[in-house]
Amino acid sequence: MYALRQLRLWRSGALLCAAALSALAFAAGTTVTASAASYPNPETISGSTYAHDPSMVKTASGTYYLFYTGGGVEISTSTDRVHWSSAGQVLPSGAGWATAYGGWNDLWAPDASYHNGVYWLYYAVSSFGSNHSAIGLATSTTAAPGSWTDKGLVYSSQSGSDYNAIDPALVVDSSGRWWLSFGSFWSGVKMIQIDPATGKQLASNTTRYSLAQRPSPDAEEASFVYPHGGYYYLFTSFDYCCRGTSSTYRIMVARATGPTGPYTDESGVSAISGGGTQILGTHGIVIGPGGQSVMHDSDGDVLVYHYYDSNLNGTAQLGLNHLTWGTSGWPTVTN
Question: Is 199 a domain residue?
Fold first, then answer.
């Protein structure tokens, strides 16, 4: 993901400064719910705290499994969501089916969830600097290292496509239908319907829905759809990751009454027109938070993300915060 995004950054020109990015965002309809001074710090954690594009699940026994970009998808575990230990990889030998896409042994942006007695983990593969990309699937009944089976290709994009098949995330709607969102740069965030029996695209519905797009800059990715209170909340990352302390990622949200949209932000601006309400951005030592997902835990909804720590020379770190839902239904990042 790093090389691809950096090359896309070069395609857009030199790295924009924070002020310029903010101006562009407001021109596209972005709203901001809190100032940088009011953003909470991540919860205090220790141990194996490096993570990029993290996704987290909790087993019935109380063990947390954290999955993140790198190798055959890196795994860390914890029993208390505070102390973390490195625990191996999902696919230590990589995804052999994906050699045509490049990066078959450097898998990106995993999304893990538990349904029908199975852990489903979607991951992304891409060749350097192009949208010749693919989404794969691995499954397990325990989530533990050594238990995963690669199920192969789910969806792909080609160099001539107007979308990019990376950053997958699964959501199950209120009717029990499965959907997979994905997308990075190009024409934004897309969604397809998934067959719960296979984890692959549903044969009877091959529509590729458009959920969100930024007209300029087109830097939007890392989609995650989370159902809450009768709405579907689309979390995305705006701007640029993977630049250490120069990263400008920020976490945005829009919502809809159905998983395929239409999504609008808190001000009513369409996500297709660049709308999004900012809920977390750079503050203090926390640089460029993004690559987010949301997990419901016993103490509430937890925002799981990475950020670049200015005290660690811009090393990517796991960020955890709670989400509080206001009377109007919009989320706020809290401690």
Answer: yes
